[in-house]
Write a structure and sequence with these properties.
Layout lengths: L7 H7 L25 H8 L14 H14 L3 E5 L2 H12 L5 E5 L4 H10 L6 E5 L4 H7 L4 E7 L11 H10 L3 E5 L4 H4 L9 E5 L13 E5 L2 H14 L5 H11 L2 H21 L3 E5 L9 H7 L6 E6 L2 H11 L4 E2 L9 E3 L11 H6 L6 E5 L5 H13 L3
Parallel strand pairs: 2-3, 2-4, 4-5, 5-6, 10-11
Antiparallel strand pairs: 1-7, 6-7, 8-9, 9-12, 11-12
Bound molecules: ligand LCS.
The site of ligand LCS has 18 residues, from helix 4.
Length: 394
């Protein structure tokens, strides 16, 4: 089905969702580990890549392929590869695109485990890395070396909401013969398309906005060209980081309402961010939609909206933050983000606890920072929840 020319909301609903065999409105769950061959020649042809049929679910499956087709369409890529989790997508990208002796330049405030993977685990295989503030293109350029093969950017970044200029980063990476991989989890394909801006690979933790209902863990990689796409698919299959058909069915169902969810949650997020900024207890607020955000103008150019992630710090620091997290009643105190339910968490002791304090502070992740993922509840209830938590004496 050729749907490129349709608007994003139409494509969210329809891409990859039709089953040719019986005309079912959504792709069914092909709950099978393996696919029979009609004869030995057909099996040989499939393994040789001369017959596109399915072989074995770790390598590919119709339900998973339907979701991959949808992601390829939404991100304007050539090849999409679904993975068992967002971290599986990060791992597959790194293993597929790096070798011993290579160097990675990355965003200092990436999701904690992504940094730990690159800095503490890939280093055991001879891969070196430099983490910089990629919202400043000059810092990317000056971190590049002879052996830099990958620029790995997270934008907006978790949890500091730093926005990196994807076009500028692609220019710097390509000039040095490196590839640009963008973790676009915080934006989702509804708000930003990194491949259109020159990135080679875009990745998502589909656990977040794409699925949107806090009931599935998954990931996806989309490559701008087929050659890189083949490397990613091979590594996904070899490493066993595959998405299973039931997971794919659920995330493909979730993505249909991505636009509705984001439109609503980002409207509420703007209201809450403004409210927080005006509160005397609050030291600072980071929300991309606020003019006070350092890359607000860049986000306006690069993204189609500001999303629903807010970071802030209370004047009372860690203690005040803990007090708040323990007293909210409607927001759930939990990690993860991008779902229909509002979540609150403490990066220094939770999502980013794997980093040393020095690394965290250098990345701007202060001890008192609180991260708030806005869901689709009523704005007035969320504001009241925050108000009572801020004002409760004990
Ligand atoms: N990339 C980003 C930007 C993320 O925020 C996460 C998870 C991942 C990759 C990994 O995806 P996963 O394997 O969990 O599907 N971020 C989380 C967070 O901030 N809280 O809990 C998980």
């Amino acid at each position: 089905m050729h749907v490129r020319k349709q608007g994003i909301s139409s494509r969210l609903v329809h891409s990859g969702s039709f089953d040719e065999e019986f005309g079912s409105a959504v792709t069914p769950i092909y709950q099978t580990s393996t696919f029979g061959f009609r004869n030995a020649q057909e099996g040989a042809d499939r393994f040789a890549g001369e017959d596109p049929g399915f072989i074995y679910t770790r390598m590919g499956n119709p339900t998973v392929a339907a979701f991959e087709g949808c992601m390829c369409d939404l991100e304007a890529g050539q090849t999409a590869v679904a993975t068992s989790s967002g971290m599986a997508a990060v791992t597959v990208a790194c293993l597929a695109l790096l070798k011993q002796g290579d160097h990675v330049v990355s965003t200092a405030s990436v999701y904690g485990p992504s940094r730990t993977l690159i800095e503490s685990h890939l280093s055991r295989f001879g891969v070196t890395s430099t983490f910089v503030d990629t919202s400043d293109p000059e810092q990317i350029a000056s971190a590049m070396g002879q052996r830099t093969r990958l620029v790995y950017v997270e934008t907006p970044s978790n949890p500091m909401m730093q926005v990196t200029d994807i076009e500028a980063a692609a220019g710097i990476a390509h000039e040095q013969g490196a590839l640009l991989v963008v973790d676009s989890t915080f934006a989702s394909p509804y708000l930003q398309n990194p491949l259109v801006l020159g990135a080679d690979v875009v990745l998502h933790s589909v656990t977040k906005f794409i699925n949107g209902h806090a009931d599935v863990v998954g990931g996806v990689l989309v490559a701008a060209n087929a050659q890189v796409g083949r490397k990613l698919r091979n590594m996904m299959s070899i490493s066993g980081c595959c998405m299973d058909p039931h997971q794919a069915f659920l995330v493909h169902r979730g993505i249909k309402t991505l636009g509705l969810r984001i439109e609503r949650s980002q409207t509420i997020a703007m209201e809450i961010a403004r409210w927080l900024e005006a509160r005397s207890e609050v030291a600072w607020v980071r929300y991309i939609g606020l003019p006070s955000h350092p890359q607000h103008e860049l986000a306006r150019r690069q993204m189609r909206g500001f999303g629903s992630m807010i970071s802030f710090e209370l004047k009372g620091g860690v203690e005040a933050g803990r007090h708040l997290m323990d007293r909210v009643k409607l927001a759930t105190l939990a990690v993860s983000l991008g779902g229909v339910e509002t979540l609150i968490e403490h990066p220094a002791s939770m999502t980013h606890a794997g980093l040393s304090r020095d690394e965290r502070i250098a990345a701007g992740i202060t001890d008192g920072l609180v991260r708030y993922s806005v869901g689709i509840e009523d704005a007035c209830d969320l504001l009241e929840d925050l108000r009572q938590a801020l004002e409760s004496a004990d």
